Amino acid sequence: MDLTTAEATPQGSGLPLAFHGTIIHSLDVDELEIIEDGMIVVGADGKIEALRKNVSKGEVNGIVSEAGYTPDVFPVKYLKRGEFLCPGFIDTHNHAPQWAQRGVGRGLVIMDWLNKTTFPHEAKFEDLEYAKRTYASCVSGFLKQGITTASYYGSKHSQASKILAEICLEKGQRAYVGKCNMNRNAPDWYRDLTAEASIKETRDFIAHLRKIDPEKSLVTPILTPRFAISCTHDVLAGLGKIAKENPDLPIQTHFNEAEQEIEITKELFPEFKNEADLYEHFNLLTERSILAHCIFVDEYEMGRLKELKCGVSHCPISNTTGGVFMVAPIREYLRRGIKVGLGTDSGGGYSSSIIDAMRQAFIVSNAQQTLTKGKDPSLSLKECFFLATLGGAQVCCLDDKIGNFTVGKEFDALEIHTEVTEQRSIITPIEDEDSSEIIWEKFLMSGDDRNIAKVYVKGKSVKV
Amino acid sequence: MDLTTAEATPQGSGLPLAFHGTIIHSLDVDELEIIEDGMIVVGADGKIEALRKNVSKGEVNGIVSEAGYTPDVFPVKYLKRGEFLCPGFIDTHNHAPQWAQRGVGRGLVIMDWLNKTTFPHEAKFEDLEYAKRTYASCVSGFLKQGITTASYYGSKHSQASKILAEICLEKGQRAYVGKCNMNRNAPDWYRDLTAEASIKETRDFIAHLRKIDPEKSLVTPILTPRFAISCTHDVLAGLGKIAKENPDLPIQTHFNEAEQEIEITKELFPEFKNEADLYEHFNLLTERSILAHCIFVDEYEMGRLKELKCGVSHCPISNTTGGVFMVAPIREYLRRGIKVGLGTDSGGGYSSSIIDAMRQAFIVSNAQQTLTKGKDPSLSLKECFFLATLGGAQVCCLDDKIGNFTVGKEFDALEIHTEVTEQRSIITPIEDEDSSEIIWEKFLMSGDDRNIAKVYVKGKSVKV
């Protein structure tokens, strides 16, 4: 193997590379850019070197040349009508061990669902062979569905969670991976047995992830207290200490998720008026915090989230399929400039698809509009698409790297094919008169993973 | 061809036939029967001749013999673990011409959506080649998704609607097909130009369908006033007259679908206090009436629906993706013994899948539980499954023929395969310890058309 070439194409996947055709991405929450006859050049390092609009095919060679490459021999992929590029989806809340329990136990309220369905299932990840098999299926399944970045909760097992991180690295998915901390309110057969062990395992887990991906090129450890109910003060304090020592570490937890959860948290931590104060006290609310659900958040707490620059992971499917129908005030978060992304919460919901999550985000925003008598208008599809891409990147503090096709960012992208074929027969057929926006709308509303023909992470094709 | 054999297997599809394995169907709204090691024998006429429980493989030949067939040579299909039979899905509200506009225009309130998105689209069915192509794709698409019976609105064009019926017959889908009556509040380029023409075309359409399927073996004409807003008194009276002359004809319309629609109806028909009185006056509320949506139905109207034995087509997707979030009081309908089925309302919603409709029925029932502070408890998955099968059959007055696997009914069934393969990689994986009920739950919550391996209508395999 010629090392020079290997260095020039570090992932061995045909980079550099260019695309010509329709390119669709979000510039801001309410600003969708649809580029017709666009051209995008991806460098050998997987970064976007050029993004141009209204490029005729005759102009392609000139742009290749301008970018410093040799025309004619440079690989350019031409997208046909009905095909377009969009940014990869970002799943800001995902319990990887729940891959094999998706949809089971819907209708149970949170603590029942944890004890009856989830804990017995997650406990199986003690078995590392089971973990390998299930996480391989999980990561492939999410990549196939266009999730180029996921923020994963592992199980409480640090060994299995290391396997999850290794599989992400091997399959080429960008991921935050956390060993789940939980040392109480869970059965003895599925919890960290002491606070010390919980923290020690976490430190060891972080060190392992830094070792396997020293550049944080794809995989980053994330602090993952399950939620305050399952952590003693010692564990929360220990994690806060790690966060202070490592200000680059992201943090994730569940936040004001359900009435039952909020009540129990207050009983366990009577010294705090609310969850914002609780997690802030333990140094767990930073601009790198990803807070899942955020249903019942009052004026004061919203102020803290904004001030501390925390991100909200909106999980509209699990919010409406547990024992109760709950709507997070997403319009209000957006109005205040609080960061918001989408989470499949696969396991807690039923679907592992961000496309489903976008549709459900749209539906629950209609509910919120009705419930607030119009004060909180519905989300548009453009806004839902933003949440699934650039919004998610902001929540993960990765918007300098991914989320849209700004020059200089890494190329995490999906190649969407909407033409009806034997394989892809369910999507709404494209009609002669359909604009690119209608084609995009048909994909969002009626497409699925079969319409995601290629998935790229850092320029590398990873579709499995 | 040997005519004797042809008569014995009238549809040329390998009947008679038996299945052995897990069989799941509804006996009543809250009664799901899961038959382990079941055996079902389907006769040459497509009817169920035997349904047996707990049959060991050694007993199969005895049952074949009992049913009057020759053991050993009789074809028995053995279902493996992870596979089961369930009744075909019944879609009680489906606008076939909207197949190619699914998902488009979501967020618009009803009259805007009709004028901007739907009418221009439906007008294309004037072109019979377009109709042939689009309806072929539509009927195949629905069959593929397990919809063995659909109640279709056609466009206003009787010719195109005849083509739809012919395609259903050719592809083997059981269907109600209606030429849509609409002679006002629609643009000149897309409406019946006179009441006389509207009625005359309808009579001609009915005669044609009776000619092509004289036994009503699969295709039945259905009276289809779009809704009162689009019909003058003359048209409603003319349709009511046809209904009186033909008491076997089913009838479908939209009923109390949206606040805007109800207001306009009251302006156009000030002589009626409500829509129940209006449609009843015109002889359009009978036990064969399928009323779509039924969102805002008061005590009086509920009484009429019950008394007149009308059926409700619940369309939870379109009810929540138009400009407003609306929840039909399904629990209350069930409590009163009013017939309820599910509709994809594909076009008005975004999905052509009854599986999606079941999930959304579950979700909006959670909303209704919250909105009524627990008075109307959520639907269980069992109830949602009932709505998609036996409930739909009741709404169509076809429950003597289809909807479950009662001996004597016609065999409309789906063969569900849940094993994860390259093709079917999104469904929640089945675990060793999963019961048949959990496998069924995983299919309902995370499966899609890829898990519907075979579709049978009247015993004939029709999967396309």
Automatic annotation (TrEMBL), chains A, B:
This is Guanine deaminase. Catalyzes the hydrolytic deamination of guanine, producing xanthine and ammonia. Its cofactor is Zn(2+). Residues 84-462 form the Amidohydrolase-related domain. Transmembrane segments: none annotated. It comes from Paecilomyces lecythidis. Binds 1 zinc ion per subunit. SUPFAM superfamilies: Metallo-dependent hydrolases (SSF51556). It catalyses: guanine + H2O + H(+) = xanthine + NH4(+). Keywords: Hydrolase, Metal-binding, Zinc. It is an enzyme of class 3 (hydrolase). Belongs to the metallo-dependent hydrolases superfamily. ATZ/TRZ family. It comes from the Eukaryota. Pathway: Purine metabolism; guanine degradation; xanthine from guanine: step 1/1. Its EC number is 3.5.4.3.
